[in-house]
Design goal:
heterotrimer; A alpha/beta (327); B alpha/beta (341); C mainly alpha (294); B: 341 residues; alpha/beta; eight-stranded mixed sheet; four-stranded antiparallel sheet; 13 helices; 33% helix; globular; disordered N terminus; C: 294 residues; mainly alpha; MetI-like fold
Amino acid sequence: MPEGGIVASPLLEVRDLVKHFPIRRGLFGRAGARVHAVDGVSLAIGHGETLGLVGESGCGKSTVGKVILRLIEPTSGTIALDGRDITTLDTGAMRAVRQQMQVVFQDPYSSLNPRMTAGEIVGEPFINYAIGTGAERAEKVAALFRRVGLRAEQMARYPHEFSGGQRQRLGIARALALGPRLIIGDEPVSALDVSVQAQVINLMMDLQEEYGLSYLFIAHDLAVVEHISHRVAVMYLGKIVEVAPKRTLFATPGHPYTEALLASVPLPKPRARRKRVTLRGDVPSPVSPPSGCRFHTRCPYAVARCAQEEPLLREIAPGQQVACHLR
Amino acid sequence: MATPVDAAPLLAVEGLRTSFVDEGVALHAVDGLSFSVGRGETLCIVGESGCGKSVSALSVMRLLPPPPACRVEGSVRLDGREILALSEAEMRSIRGNTISMIFQEPMTSLNPVVTIGYQIAEAVRQHEGRSWAEGYARALEMLRLVRIPEAESRLKQYPHQLSGGMRQRVMIAMALACRPKVLLADEPTTALDVTIQAQILELMRELQEETGTAIVLITHDLGVVAEMARRVVVMYAGRKVEEATVDDLFDRPAHPYTVGLMGSIPQLGSSVEEGAARRRLAEIPGIVPSLRAMPSGCAFAPRCPLATERCRAEMPPLEERRPGHRSACWHWERAAEAIHA
Amino acid sequence: MTDIAALPADAAVAGPSRFAFSRILRRHPTMLVGGVILVVMAVVSLLAPWLAPYDPIELNVVDRLRPPDEDYLLGTDAYGRDMLSRLLYGGRVSLAVGLCVAAFSTVLGLLIGVVAGYYRLADALLMRVMDGLMAIPGILLAIALMTVTRASIEVVIVAITIPEIPRVVRLVRAVVLSIREQTYVQAAVAIGTRFPRLLRKHILPNTLAPLVVQATYIFAHAVLVEAYLSFLGVGTPPEIPSWGNVIAEGRLYVQIAFWQVLFPGIALALMVLSINLLGDGLRDLLDPRLSRRA
């Protein structure tokens, strides 16, 4: 398993990814203001590796996932899967790539078509790529059902007849169908109750071992990300501020924002009174992000330089890259 | 010791039972729930979705639809006064005044077409019979109390102009404007980011120290429980299965469900303590039973690794197993073993 | 790995299907009433050639303006034509116009709406055209069409259909726009679903429920509009007995022969009411939020 921060021959490599959403006013309105959802993100994921991507709502982490999947077109930057640039592939060529790269969404209620049966949903990838005969497909779907802990008899049921955890298992089965090498999990366990969340996390980790999958695991729950990831990247307002092997990141966070995030999580230990770095204020608007370091408006250590000059990611320890002037 | 400071609790709920009628069948969303909170105390009610924790709060606030759709039985005493027997008019004068509630989603409980200053002032005016000027003065004071920057200009803003964290602060300001004795908070920070959650939790603690409000905090997050509670009630399938002081609960949980919950949450800092190798989480297999198909014995038995014939046949009573520590389990002494590999 | 499915407790097992007949009877009795009335009226109208006691257009001056009696159950009109027979045949016109208008406007509206909902450029253009169509009063359009062509039922159908199309287009476009944003559509793209299948399996089926409901309202509206166009003399040609025509002819004699207006009026009201009841019931039945309120 890769321990360092730099992956030698990555399965997925993203460079300088930018996604700006124009804010349109009216039909012919001038597209002046733009939401800087993702602003120069680079990351790499090795074979069989899980990269956790954390950040607060609106930091652009879900957009990163969707752009990598080409569900949203990037404004600029490159996405390479197994060394091949997929940034500008047309719809047809992209379809072929999709077999390698799948997604599990957060909301187990809206990510399944309510008018298709569970079996149709999980079997749809086979139809799309004309894999197998009808009977073979049914057998494959049944096998997928069993693999994610559902019963094959449940294939004829509709999504609303399943519980939240079971629906998330359906989403995972659908993502597994084509035998992908990379699965992007967009907050895949955030909507689930804790006891069910543990079931789904365990399932995802088991599947990773079994099939050698790589994960981009997008979440806001730091404990969950720490549990499932090998390396973790922290995003703030469209930029990655720190990326490191998880042990390094959680033991010696390099960026003040990472530090504040870790200190904000309430621990299930009643007597663990910690030093609190309560951040002031709210996340600034991504329409007009602050100058210099985007975190300087909330940073307890900010100095004059932080407001003027943008810090770049630098390696401060083996595998640990931090974007901060003060490290 | 585990007993609250005050002899007479501010809010005492006794044998609360809330039923919804669906196609002629009464479903008990809450069944036989009892708890009490004293002045300046925080009680946490913890459980997963569908365990009845929110319905309990709505029952106490009398915010559920009237019979026959829904029935609330038992006793709810607020400052010594039975409120389940009050008329709707009497209840209105208490709600937001002696007892208030904050909800998970602030946007649904703030009126979108009225400024936040007006909303707070209106509540003060109605409950305390004060003038508009006094109401606005109180509103300003409350916004400052909940640490909203530029409070004066915020008074004239509408809810949609505020961020999620700010809205939740406004909700708290509104809930506290009439200086309630009891505050029910239903997942007040679940919709917020962790850094904002930390601010709000800290604010609630500080305000409690200043005002002595008794808080009933409903949450699914054991981290929030550990941080906020003095005593904890664990609910499962509409019933209280365990109650203890927060230290007792985390040190010596006496119900397999509590043990399972604690085992199934990933721990922050686990990689630092255990190394980079990844381990499996403990699972609670299966899902919460439906209200329509409650098991006959202990409701947790189908998911419990300790379950025996007795558990499936006979519902365990909620009894004091250690001083101040109550558990509804036949095998409470072995509860710590209740971890699924 | 513990097998979640092997456990008996399964909170998500749904009750009987919401489309089960007994459930519809219990939860939506008005829908059932509407449906039964409509079916009865439809069957009776379709069987008019066999059920009608007289020829609906044969003049019989001897028996003119007869009040209801045992020979003429609903009386006769100023030309001695049997009211019952005319009403039975008139029902065929109403049903034909209603069905055709509902079918044409739904199909055309669906096509245009999907295109508008999917292609940004076409959207701007199509929606302006639709706004223009909506601004034309239906009666003016009917009068204009009648003056340039010969009056016929086909022209009536066209005249009523055109102003209905924009309503359907707006509905379909709004629904398609919201479905496009649903995660399951993104998920379908991610698993390599091609556009035609995306449309057929994911977008259209989820558009259909509100569309079916809308179609029933269009049906009811078309029946009414046909009647008032005919009443004003710009609808169904007078030689064909339609309810609007019957009322139009009867209004001259309403003071001495009320039945000429009353009975077709009742028939019209009953048909519109029954279709609306059916539509309301369908709306509740197909809306998961309303039917889940269990």
